[in-house]
Automatic annotation (TrEMBL):
InterPro entries: Iah1-like, SGNH_hydro_sf
PANTHER family in UniProt: GDSL ESTERASE_LIPASE CPRD49, ISOAMYL ACETATE-HYDROLYZING ESTERASE 1
Protein name: GDSL esterase/lipase CPRD49
Recorded superkingdom: Eukaryota
Amino acid sequence: MHMEQPCIGKHSQIWDNMRKIAVHLKVIDLFTAFQRRDNWKTCFTDGIHLSLEGSKVVVAEILEVLKEAEWKPSLHWKPMPTEFSDDSPYDLVAADGKTTLNPSE
């Protein structure tokens, strides 16, 4: 009795598609990013969950990938077009305490 294995062809196709997609993926090595710190354990509150310090490391790594990526349009905040450039009461207050700073400018 000969049994066919129809899922082998499907799995092969899935792996082939994954290899094609992987060429375009950007990878963030958080392990190495945490290890670059003098005391990497401060990146976690309990060994699993990120602390404020750990969150800053993750954000910095994500922003670096977004800045270097050659995606069009860019997802990094600096080159994004300003959609709402009008002054707003929610803008940051300047040092003089009277005027506001529009962060989109």
